[in-house]
Amino acid sequence: MYNERYRPQFHFSPKENWMNDPNGLVYFKGEYHLFYQYHPDGTKWGPMHWGHAVSKDLIHWDHLPIALFPDELGTIFSGCAVVDYGNTSGLKDGDEDVMVAIFTQHEEGNQKQSIAYSHDRGRTWTKYHNNPVIANPGLKDIRDPKVFWHEDANKWIMSLACGNHIRFYGSSNLLEWEHMSSFGEGYGAHGGVWECPDLIEVPVKGSEEKKWVLIVSINPGAPNGGSGMQYFVGEFNGKSFLPDESPETTHWADYGRDFYAAVSWLDTPTQEQIWIGWMSNWQYANEVPTHPWRSAMSIPRVVTLMKTENGYNLVQTPVKEIEQLRTRKTIEEHDVITHKEKPLKLSGVGPLLEMDIEVKEAQADTWGIHVRHGESQTTIAFHLKKGQWSIDRTQSGEVDFSTEFPSKDIAPFEKEVNKVQFYLDTSSLEVFLNDGESVITELIFPSQEDVEMELFARNGEVAFDRVKVTNLKGIWEKEREL
Ligand code: FRU
Predict the structure, then answer these.
(1) In principle, which of 29, 267, 278, 296 could form an S-S bond with 13, CB 3.0–4.6 Å?
(2) pLDDT tens-digit profile of 148-179?
(3) Entry pTM
(4) Which GO terms describe its biological process (predicted)?
């Protein structure tokens, strides 16, 4: 159990069958809820339900029964959940605060928004008798509601993806909604349909400042192809989103191919903004070589902003709870120098690991890491003269299940490469540059024999203060014992 080939060992995946977007992320009574787009009858996308899991630490998950099933209004697409502490909806019954899920119901050509409620901490759900709460206004694409309580406006705010723009709705009771404003036409990237919005207030590192960030997934149209995530930084006055930047500016959250539909948890105990994304891409999601499940979620990440000369940049770091997976099996090297004739080989590591690299001085044109190195490899490379970094997975192992999969994916970096941290699971790689200023997330399907890691440099040398590999534990041990 949970030890099939390519089964993620420290990322969430369903026991079996198809999963896509995270939904209904909310913290309530000691539990982080993770609902997700789920097709319980197959390993390909199909009639959508909401699967469900809960966690006390964002790392170990308990699978729960399916939360929402399709009904006569349609299948259950993406959406969110809130705890209605003030019982604004009047749906509370008994002592327990009422949880309300707000989601899209999909029938071909008719998407509308519905709600359901739970009196038992999300274990069982009742659909509202007067669904939908927002009927289709004549749009083909209108979906993925994300709702939060806005203190100053004293109302619930909903962001809704409408093809090429986001609409903001307001409500005092979660039942009746008023369309307040729209944002997005002519702004940012429009290579595909806009999906899964999220509007969050994010702290700026090293200051007391906070900015509003509007997150928008887009498919296709990502910088390296297929599904990707852009964001806009600005202000939200309780009614409208006002961007700081010009319509031409596009910011990308993750330059990898496999980070999509990420949204944030409501009501986190630390009040941090924490999000999780679906680690796949619609270009090949239905073909990835895993069985009997398909798809995993990313590591949950804390989101902050960093002020730069060009405005604000989203910064992502893995939640600190991941540190509990570290084992004492580590390899640590200090003051090492790597150049063309002298790569640094690290054997006997993995397959689950965290790698931390601190650069002292880099003269090479390019340096990098061969991950899961052997017959094949995935190459993380820093092209210092170009101000770019990349992940090449064309030789990463099993790649031929889709012509869209083998790729070399490129990201810019701000100034220099000081720190690299990455997390390697059995079938994914998440790389955080300079404490999360730039991130690349990629699926890989390496051969079991390829376990080495190698640091290399071309045209010059690189000196490292520290190179550390920490082997990690998996999260499914408890499930295996059951
Ligand atoms: C994003 C998405 C959403 C939709 C869901 C359907 O990946 O297309 O827009 O609600 O998946 O499963």
Answers:
(1) 296
(2) 999 999 999 999 999 999 999 999 999 999 99
(3) 0.97
(4) sucrose catabolic process
